[in-house]
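Curious: why this fold?
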Amino acid sequence: MSAVPSLVVERTPHRRSPRYPINVALDVIALRSGVPENLPGRCTDLSESGVGAMVAGELASGQQLAVELRLPNVGVPVRARALVRYQGQLRCGFEFVALSVEQREMIRYWTHRVSGQPIENEGDQSARIGPFPAAATLTAAQSSPRIRIRSRQFNLLLAALLLLAVVGWWQWQRSWHELEIGAEAAAEAPLRVSPETMEMRIVSKTEPSYPDEARRLGKQGLAVLDVVIAQDGTVRRLQPVSGDDLLVKSAADAVRLWKFEPYQLSGRAVEVQTTIAVEFRLH
């Protein structure tokens, strides 16, 4: 009896989204300490999963950012959030995060144009059977569905994609606008500095007067103020935090006249916020 050799199915490595070469401008928006920064770049390859590029800037693996590119023969730019998967010698690999349906369809339409092949369903798997690679390839090619779209249907589909892309662009712009507003507000907020640090920077200090009524009523204790000090060292504004009203008013009148040595950050005078406590004690 002769033994019949068994057919062994060998799975070849499969990329779910094949890459296609492309040479178009790429805009990368990354957050640096909460502030958006634009980095120019150039796309080298593109797939439904991500994009390879040359970027003029330093990025870190796992960093979140936004990318924007305009595909040839597609009127609306692709804007999407992405993760940095690798970066070295200005070469970067970005993985798309939560790519919208319209953006994915735009990429599929472009890859269909450049490849000259029908668009295959995402997730198709191909197998190569041991000694018969040609037969397996033919079977896979025959089983792949071909998409036939009439001119009118194609125009309606393209119009729907453009409408979805415009809506997605508006939502993307609104999200980044809110992010920029938050970053600007954080940048404009005064730097918080400890009371001990600012106490050592006092240049001139006016002692508060003890209110007669507070003395008569035997009131004493701490009057605590939250103070914003301008770049020139003057008190810009203050707000009571705790203490008796009479004592707080007297302390505020005196602290408004205080002068501090300007606080510097990276060689530049900045506005700071601190807490000042004035003690009133009866003798």
Q: What stands out?
A: The longest strand covers residues 35-46. Residues 151-188 form the longest helix (38 residues). The radius of gyration is 33 Å.
